Amino acid sequence: MSLLILGSVALDAVKTPFEEHEDLFGGTASYATISASFFVRPSMVAIIGDDFPKQYLEDLKQRNIDLTGLQIVPGKTFRWSGEYFDNMNNRKTHLTELNVFADFIPVLPEAYRKLPFILLSNIGPDLQLHVLDQLEDPRFVIADTMNLWINIARPDLMKLLARIDLLSINDSEARELTGDNNLVKAGEILRSMGPKYVAIKKGEHGCYLFGPDQFFSCPSFPLEEIKDPTGAGDAFAGGLAGYLTDHCDAAVQQGGINFDILRQAVVYGSVMASFAIESFGPDRLRTVTKNDIEKRVQLLKTYSLL
Ligand code: AMP
Question: Which of 13, 162, 169, 180 is least crowded, fewest Cβ atoms below 10 Å from its Cβ?
Answer without folding.
Answer: 162
